[in-house]
Amino acid sequence: MKRRQAIKSTAYGSAYALFFAQLVACKSNRESVESIVKEEILKRKVMLPENTPYTMDFLQGNVGFFTERGGTIGWMIEDGHTAIVDTQFPDQSHHLLDQLNSMQDGHIDLLINTHHHGDHTAGNIVYKNLTDRIVAHENSKTNQLANAKKNGNEDKQLYPNELFKDIWTTKVGSETITLDYFGAAHTDGDAITHFENANVVHMGDLIFNRRFPYIDMSAGASISNWINVLDKVLNKFDVKTKFIFGHSDNGFDVTGGKEDIKAFQNYLSRLLIFGEQSIKSGITLDELRMSTTEIPGAPEWKGKGIERSLEAVYTELG
């Protein structure tokens, strides 16, 4: 048996074997059987080679995550169908594809970019002959074009060829994938990706889990509206939704739940309050950089990178 067939058998075989055994024993209790099967499928693990430089696993249903260098990648596989969210860099996209190809043979039906930053889109070029559909918010493509021209690396880009403004939906296999845009936040082109059947949401860089965020004011970011965007996320999705985050600090996960979103929303709110108070007190940005290691009221955010938040809040508040 080929390696990829063996892995597929490991991933799916136990679930379906259990299904038929339980079906015979419990014909009168279909819901119970389906529940058992779903639980068994959720226990699948990606079989990684030893000493890999990356982390990859299923999260819920047929949806999983991959992280190595850059913004977290989301992926979905199902009976020859594949969808991918973000691409990190070329080497990382090759690693992801090698692993997905070991699990199943299949066309890449859809590639989604949550926004334009290079650590989420530099790997797009790897998919040039692998997919016909690359989707992003209309502002994301505008920003990607501008950045590539500025950096002189236009030849290394693969741009989205399907754009949306507010909401976009498609089917990949039996999975319904919906993209929402709730307004400016990390940039002015952040897409939120919902795998509806699996109930997994890829947040892109709308969440930095216990890590100081990059707030790209040059690309239309808004701290105040970012808070509103997260309110919409909290209202739209339920308590069983699992989220994939763009980044996390050491010791924290790139996946989580609503409590992590609320914690980051609190960070942004406290940052705005701190910025307003500092400006009102006549404290200069340079003085603030020298004296600040933590945003009052958000002690979980520690380490390097706080200056990016301070610069952004001073820029926004003027």
What would you say this structure looks like, in words?
The structure is a single chain. This protein has 318 residues and is α/β, with parallel strands linked by helices. It folds into 2 domains: 1-44, no CATH class; 45-317, Ribonuclease Z/Hydroxyacylglutathione hydrolase-like (Metallo-beta-lactamase, Chain A, 4-Layer Sandwich), CATH 3.60.15. 39% of the residues lie in helices and 20% in strands. It has helices spanning 3-25, 30-42, 90-103, 118-121, 138-151, 223-236, 258-280, 285-291, 306-317; strands spanning 55-60, 63-67, 73-78, 81-85, 107-112, 134-137, 162-164, 167-172, 175-180, 192-195, 200-202, 208-209, 242-244, 247-248, 255-256. The chain has a 7-stranded mixed sheet. It has a 6-stranded mixed sheet with strand order 8-9-10-11-13-15. Strands 12-14 form a two-stranded parallel ribbon.
